[in-house]
Amino acid sequence: MAYLEDYKMDPARAQPLITFSVFDDYAEDKDLTLVRADILNKGIDDAEGLKIVQNMLEMYTNEDEYRSVYAFNKKPDTFDVDDYVAQQNMKWKSDPDSSSTMKN
Questions:
Q1: How far apart are CA 60 and CA 68, in angstroms?
Q2: What element of type H or E holds 53?
Q3: Closest CA to 14 of 30, 1, 26
Q4: What is the rounded distance in angstroms from the CA atom of residue 68 to the CA atom of residue 96?
């Protein structure tokens, strides 16, 4: 994940803030999927990094949330980035455990 403004300017040169990998080696046999996250930006604390990864996983596993992912990847001309950011900000702020320290 990178700052939106950096990505808009040059996707290939946008510096990552956090990376994560999903390991599904045991998904079929043991119904287990592992996730590893690495925080690369010192402005993101561990709790916030966890929340970011949890949100991303929810985007791919929740049918309603996945509509945004699908639009972004398959129908980019229908994807409204400003609406998406506004929805995510509302979701982030409505969580009482939110301790946002990342600034953009």
A1: 9
A2: helix 46-61
A3: 1
A4: 24
| SS3 category, 91 | helix
Q: Which helix (H) or strand (E) holds 49?
A: helix 46-61
CB 76 within 8 A of CB 8: no
Q: What is the pLDDT of residues 33-74, one digit of tens each?
A: 999 999 999 989 999 999 889 989 999 999 988 999 999 899
Does residue 91 contact residue 31 with C-beta atoms inside 8 Å? no
Candidates 80, 31, 48; CA nearest to 56 is 48
Ranges of beta strands (E only) in the chain are 18-23, 34-39
- The letter for the amino acid at 95 is D
- Name the residue with higher pLDDT: 103 or 64: 64
Render pLDDT for 8-26 as a digit per residue (tens, 0 to 9): 899 999 999 999 999 999 9
